[in-house]
Amino acid sequence: MSKKKKFLIALLSILVIIQFIRPDKNIGNSYGANDVTQAIPTSDEVKTILDKACMDCHSNNTHYPWYNNIQPVAFWLAHHVDEGKEELNFSEFKTYKLKRQDHKLEEVVEMVQEGEMPLSSYTITHGDAKLTEAEKQLLINWANEGRKVLGVPQEEEHH
Questions:
Q1: Domain ranges, ordered by start, for the chain
Q2: Separation between Cα atoms, residue 139 and residue 61, nearest integer Å
Q3: Per-state percent for the chain, helix, strand, coil, to nearest 5
Q4: Can you spell out the DSSP letters for 92-145?
Q5: pLDDT per residue over 121-159, tens digit each?
Q6: Which region, left, alpha or beta, applies to residue 122 given φ > 0 means left and ψ of -120 to 50 means alpha?
Q7: Distance between CA 100 and CA 138 in Å, rounded?
Q8: What is the per-residue pLDDT across 93-131, written as a single tens digit (0 to 9) for each?
Q9: Distance between CA 150 and CA 140 in Å, rounded?
Q10: Which residue among 8, 55, 111, 149 is least packed, with the fewest CB closer than 10 Å?
Q11: Nearest-CA neighbor of 73 among 81, 141, 143, 120?
């Protein structure tokens, strides 16, 4: 048997075997006692935007697509969700110290303004997560107003 054929059989065997290995899923409650809506006022319109564009990666509950059942995609998605929650978890927002809450809202503004969030790799398969300019502005205004509600003194920039 040729080396190429042995390699292809080994690769196929590995792909079949890893189909039986499943990472834990992020299935819980997006909203609860510690979520962002408990910390700052959030309109239904903003909540809808958060649900469609943010919460799959930045909450305690992910809605998984069908292709999450194929390895190694499930591993990649699990890692992506873990990273997103580590950076910002809207479900646990109220547990953050006030200064961190303020900073995370500041980052929401920056990321949305710069078009870095939601990630293009997410919007490719979740077309409804692409934000219109009006939705972006609504989210930015919400985060900026949230910062005011939190009342964390802002450090002045020195030029």
A1: 23-150
A2: 20
A3: 60, 0, 40
A4: GGGGS-HHHHHHHHHHHHHHHHTT-SS-HHHHTT-GGGSPPHHHHHHHHHHHHH
A5: 888 878 888 999 999 999 999 999 999 999 877 765 444
A6: alpha
A7: 22
A8: 999 999 999 999 999 999 999 999 988 888 887 888 899
A9: 15
A10: 8
A11: 81
